[in-house]
Amino acid sequence: MKKIILTGGGTAGHVTPNIALLPHLKEAGYEVHYIGSYTGIEKTLIEELGVKYYGISSGKLRRYLSMKNFTDLFRILKGMRQAGKLVKKIKPDVVFSKGGFVTVPVVRAAGKNKIPTLIHESDMTPGLANRLAQKYACKVCCNFPETVKMIPDGKGVLTGTPIREELKHGDRAAGLNFCGFNTSKPVIMIIGGSLGALRVNEAVRAILPRLLQDFQIIHICGQGKTDSSFDNTTGYRQFEYIKEELKDLFAAADIVISRAGANVICELLAMKKPNLLIPLSAEASRGDQVLNARSFTKQGFSCMIEEEELSDNLLYDTIMALYQDRDKYVKAMEEGGQGDSISTIMALLEEVRAK
Predict the structure, then answer these.
(1) Residues 75, 287: Cα–Cα separation, whole Å
(2) Rounded CA gap, 54 and 345, in Å?
């Protein structure tokens, strides 16, 4: 049986694409092993799926002065020794890395043992961990055309991000029923990421009376960010978080308003959902969401409002224009060539394994 090591950790975004690949890897005859950190979110998510999990020591490489740089160096060195032993023990045919600092020792060990490796970079500009690991990889899978050009030695390949297959198979009627909606008005879905988006929530609620004249609204607000004063508003349903029913709510949505994290925008692309992106500002992050949103806007997949420019009237006018032009966005996404990322990545895995 063919063997593959998956690695990725630190955030859910470094794990869920690996999870999306699992059924396809098993169907293709791979025995799957996963290397992550001792206690990261990846451990819980992967072990719940019955995949063999190995924890190794990990540390973070910081680009600023900190005593943790000294102590983490020893954790990194220990992780390198552990990764080397695991790679030799498992003897994988190929490695797939989704990123995060725990992956650097794994990819390095694979390279030292001449095991072909694919790296996946979600954001427009590669993170430090993936930049350190690139030299050991055969190919680097990218979400954005701009990123492909940044990858040295011609290793960059435009693939998009693997998304959970079930998101493509939601039931619109079930989603409408779950919210108590009908078919008389189209549906807007607002999602702010796992922690929600306070500024977006406030802007949407400020124009809610106007929006409800023409739309029904599903609002996933984030933990602790619902507003009880809107609980009985006809045509408006708010949730802190949705899991099982998410696929049905996506199916019910005609347009989506979202932050611009790499995973969520690739989900919107795969589901062909016309969308308005309001990225987390560069002041509150390293600016990757702004770059992600600009790229999707340039490709015709999305429209965009930068958070610093967000106003009630601009938000309302942009939503109305997005709905009016929704077919244009769907057509661009259908022609974009990034919708079937799993097939593209599976083909790359077979290609590098066979060399």
Answers:
(1) 29
(2) 23
Q: Maximum CA pair distance of the chain?
A: 63
CB count in 10 Å sphere of residue 242: 15
Distance CA 183, CA 176 (A): 8
Of 151, 98, 137, 35, the C-alpha closest to 263 is 98
- State yes or no: pLDDT of 13 exceeds 90: no
CA–CA gap between residue 194 and residue 222 (Å, rounded):
6
Residue type, 22: L
Instruction: Tell how strand 216-220 and strand 255-258 pair up.
Output: unpaired
Question: pLDDT at residue 65 above 80?
Answer: no
How confident is the model at residue 105, as a pLDDT?
95
**Range name among 79-88, 121-130, 334-343 with the lowest pLDDT average:** 334-343
**What SS3 class is residue 52?**
strand
Average pLDDT, the chain: 91
Could you tell me which of 115, 113, 138, 140 has the C-alpha nearest to residue 129?
A: 140
- What is the model's pLDDT at position 281? 81
Q: Which residues of 329-342 are buried (b: 16+ CB within 10 A; e: fewer)?
A: beebbeebebbebb
In percent, the amount of the chain with pLDDT more than 90 equals 73
Tokens linked to 29: 């005859």
Q: Lowest mean pLDDT of 236-245, 268-277, 281-290, name the range.
A: 281-290
Q: What pairing do the DSSP bridges indicate for beta strands 187-191 and 156-158?
A: unpaired
Predicted model pTM: 0.84
Backbone angles phi and psi of 189, in degrees to 5: -115, 130
Rg (CA), the chain: 21
Alpha carbons 276 and 30: distance in angstroms, whole number: 38
- Euclidean distance between CA atoms 345 and 18, whole angstroms: 11
The two tokens of residue 275 are 């969308």
Mapping DSSP onto H, E and C, the string for 87-134 reads HHHHCCCEEEECCCCCHHHHHHHHHHCCCCEEEEECCCCCCHHHHHHH
Residue 192 has pLDDT above 80, yes or no: no
Query: In which residue are the tokens 């990322």 written?
Result: 341
